[in-house]
Amino acid sequence: MINLTINGKAITAPEGSTILEAARANGIDIPTLCYDKAVEVYGACGLCVVEAEGIPKLLRSCSAKVSEGMIVNTESERVVRSRTIAMELLMSAHDGDCVAPCQLNCPARTDCQGYVGLIANGEYDAALKLIKSKISLPASIGRVCPHPCEKACRRQNVEEPINIAQLKAFAADMDLKSDSYIPEVQEPTGKKVAVIGGGPAGLTAAYYLTIMGHDVTVYDMMPKMGGMLRYGIPQYRLPKEVLDKEIAIIEKTGVKFVNNSKLGVDYTIESLKAENDAVIVAVGAWKSSSMRTPGEELDGVYGGIDFLRGVIQGNAPEIGEKVAICGGGNTAMDACRTAVRLGAKEVYVVYRRTRAEMPADELEIDEAEEEGVIYKFLTNPLSFNGEDGKVKSITLQIMELGEPDASGRRRPVPVEGKTEEIAVDSVILAIGQKLVQGDVSELELNERGNIIADADFFTTSIDGVFAIGDATNRGASIAIEAIGEADRCAKAVDAYLNGQELDTRVPYISKRDEDTIDYSDREKAPRITPKVLAPEVRNKNFDEVSLGFTEDEAKAEADRCLECGCREYYKCKLLNVAQRYDINPERFKGEMPQKYSRDENAFIERNTSKCILCGLCVRSCREVMKLSSIGLMGRGFKTDVSPAFALPLDETNCNNCGLCVQLCPTGSLTEKFNLPKQVPLDEQYTEEFVDIDGKQSSVLVSRYNGKILRVIPNDEISRNCGLTREQLQAKIK
């Protein structure tokens, strides 16, 4: 035995063993992407380098042998610098998506691809659980979310994006119709948390902290929980019966609710802090923004959220027959469509830009128009004109589009001397909302009048008090953004309660170059949208407009997914190493050496754009299976892995053993699933034993819901038995 020291730890190793073998035998991890004990040492990736005292150059630990008294450092500054450069070079030639663009564009980082794939498979329960790992109110959010995920969906490059939001609502509705999923709650921690505000942010934070085992109470000033989902979204878009069911599920996890209790009146932040280990402020933004236009003080001029709240609570104001709504967002759409349902004969939407610049959801804009709403684009209120203190008309400034502003949209500028006047009975200002500052006077506010909260930890000016949602930093945004913050805040509060450091470093992920993607081979399949009530029916009541997906519609729509994210994400060795270091592959970026292709057969899918030329597939095929079905073709940057003579894989002597797939560190080689659509990406292998010619042989088996997905030979007997994949699988009980 040889005595040596690795990272200050004295160990022994058999004479003739490598530094890598010695380190692994003693629980010391040295990264490598081209090494496997099944094949001979190759040293291609350059990641396993280490530094040894007295030796000037870095050693490749996969081949360097141990020697008596050797002192090795596997994480020195020089080693890390070398590995970082090696990873940057490897990743600069790796053209693949770790995560689908839809998930990256979702503020809550929901695994859209995962649950869409599960819905395509009919696995609704699994889809719901995946959604609820990030979103506590999916049936509600699926109905009202402006779906930024869909704006990033690559299916729109074929024809139209996947209807992700409606699929989320479908999975959640299926859950509400059955024995609803209640997550397992961890053992009580003895820690107490108070949450101020029962909107989507507060409820989400409470839900996840309760699951973590903490004792959570939510305080809210309104009669019922739900925040703006209840008091700001009309019934025809979000039936409150649906919201009630989802809130009841949150309560069943153990969250306590205290309603009709107002901050600053019934309690203070400091009083809650004295009774709890942490406090989360999620009070929302309940004050309508002003346009600072002459005449706003007139009777009949209402704030958008004030108007909607009054209608929802059964206190709808008298709006008359002619109503103008100022604004172009979803609140403006909610207000104008509500006005129609209240019986208004002429409903105008006044917006200073054109239809193309409206931030409201396109479906809302279209449906409002179908219901009789009249759009007055390129107009802006100059004044609200009254008589006896009551609004009677609006003077509109005619606008035109000028140069783009900071948002990228063309700036509206007045057309000098050109105005228009329209008679109205009421005006609704739907241009935004803001925090009621007096409610949170104990906390430090920014120049916008919002709570200052740390972007990563959500901490405020008071220790132990956190803040999230519309009341913080930039102000009001969409509900899914508040939910995403709440999920991250729950983790921050949990770390605070446990006295732990929270790692907020954003891990590296690979993204495809959009310009290299070819969609020409994709068969067109138009987007499926759920049926809706006819305009002449729905504009007379507050019944839900969308009738939702049928099962067949949901499966067909989900099946359109292009599955952009890598199915090997959770076990990708390349990504695992890349995320250990602060890499910037862009500095080595050049022409991608591999062309994106899918040269595949019945079992194996090849994606050469993800290949890093580690050689494991080629070497295992040659050295272990004695087949040489694939090899390294070309030289230098043009080198790629191809079947012999560039034949299709099925025309080689490949026996589909799957060893190359098992060893591939990148997802360049994957096995096809025995299901119509992708299953969750974190499936695990278990070792099982089968009888082959009277000998016990090891195989790796991956199962999902009782179905065998993959079978991979795991020893010399199974690798050299000559059995086909089907024959080997048939031996598994």
In words, what does this structure look like?
45% of the residues are buried. The chain folds into 5 domains: 2-75, Ubiquitin-like (UB roll) (Roll), CATH 3.10.20; 101-181 and 512-558, Fumarate Reductase Iron-sulfur Protein, Chain B, domain 2, CATH 1.10.1060.10; 192-286 and 435-497, FAD/NAD(P)-binding domain; 292-430, FAD/NAD(P)-binding domain, CATH 3.50.50; 592-730, Alpha-Beta Plaits. It is built from 23 helices and 27 strands. It is 27% helix and 20% strand. The protein has a 5-stranded mixed β-sheet, with helices on both faces. It has a 5-stranded parallel β-sheet with strand order 8-7-6-9-20, with helices on both faces. The model has no long low-confidence stretch (mean pLDDT 92). Strand 12, helix 14 (330-341) and strand 13 (346-351) form a beta-alpha-beta unit. Helix 4 runs antiparallel to helix 5, helix 4 (112-120) packs across helix 8 and helix 5 (124-132) packs across helix 8. The two termini are 43 Å apart. The longest helix has 19 residues, at 479-497. With 733 residues, it is α/β, with parallel strands linked by helices.
Observed structural traits:
733 residues, alpha/beta, Ubiquitin-like (UB roll), Fumarate Reductase Iron-sulfur Protein, Chain B, domain 2, FAD/NAD(P)-binding domain, 5 domains, five-stranded mixed sheet, five-stranded parallel sheet, 23 helices
Mean pLDDT rating: 92
Question: Which blocks of ≥5 consecutive residues have pLDDT under 50?
Answer: none
| CATH homologous superfamily grouping of the largest domain | FAD/NAD(P)-binding domain
Strand order of the largest sheet: 2-1-5-3-4
Biggest beta-sheet profile: 5 strands, mixed
Look at the structure and give the CATH class of the largest domain: Alpha Beta
Number of strands: 27
Which percent range fits the helix content? 25-40%
Shape: elongated
Alpha plus pi helix count: 23
Structural class: alpha/beta
Determine the N-to-C terminus distance. 43 Å
How many distinct domains?
A: 5
Proportion of strand residues: 15-25%
- CATH fold label of the largest domain: FAD/NAD(P)-binding domain
Radius of gyration: 30 Å
Per CATH, which architecture of the largest domain? 3-Layer(bba) Sandwich
